[in-house]
Amino acid sequence: MSSQNPVFIPGPTNMPEEIRKAVYVPTLDHRSPAFAKIFTPAVAGVKRILRMKAGEVFILPSTGTGGWEAAISNTLSPGDTVLAARFGMFSHRWIDMCQRHGLHVQVIEAPWGQGAPVAAIEAALNNDAGHKIKAVLATHNETATGVRSDIAGIRKAMDAAGHPALFLVDGVSSVASMPFDMDGWGIDIAVTGSQKGFMLPVGLAILGVSPKALAAMQSARLPRTFFDFADQIRTNAAGGYPYTPPVGLIAGLARAVEMLEEEGMEQVFARHHRIAEGVRRAIAAWGLRPCAVTPDLCSDTVTAVVVPEGCNGTDLVQLAARKYGVAFGVGLGEVAGKVFRIGHLGMLTDVLMLAGLATAEMCMADLGWSARLGSGVAAAQDYYRDTAV
Fold it and tell me: What is the residue range of 382's domain?
């Protein structure tokens, strides 16, 4: 049955049975101590995963996109200037959201396949002597191109420029899968979602908010109601919500944190890197390359595979779904048709990943592409055998 096949998209990810069961909680009173027993450990666990000590964690019924909106609407005012680089579909969408909210976005354009340009960001901050820029937006892991950016490097650039702007980071497809250090990287708001590294269904926007960002709420004038952090603060402290919360998802989040910490976060990161490296070796054996222009930019959660000249990546994705019941990701925006995407995050092992690579090879053979059946699988097998724990 195709429904039993794992998915190889960069989210939603495969869901462990333990989390599926944790989500299916019986109805309970969300204003009772019973809910607080679920909610409190979920918040504390997210703080540990984000590596933050001070500030607040907010768990909102939404997605990562809603998390972006909550981040800007609680800290900025109409007409404020924000600095952001555009180098993929998701960095583009956050920029678009800011513009729709009446913010002035100073956009730094970068080729898709590269990461956020640290030097250009530092130069823009150095040129902003009057500190008109109120926030720097950065996408840690650009899901459309399989590129990770140097978030620590951007913080160093901000510090080198002596700039007081807030630092807002999209960690939707990196948090809980790749190293992420909110305090160490000086991040003011980190945004993620439930359906990626936390292995949950879609439905939660998860934010870590620093004391500096909380203070910015006092002067922020963008309209907000459902996403108002002030309402969350008033009710979360007692284990409650300003509205009906998604109890099952929050219960699942608490269990997801337990599972991640039982494995050990360093082991989680190492597993993702190992699986991703096997994928990269398979791609090289096929005679193809990732969209990321240099190895240091390659994401450990998703790889965008550049397809051969004259081929269309969407054809492979559609064939995989129709013939083999397996899901890969299509190319988005500027790389639509030029790539197909292999997600390798969340509940995944090397054995499961080999099934995905074998399916991709069958699709390439079916489509008449030049990749030889078994070549990529063998390359990944050799790597996984040599690095098995």
Answer: 264-387
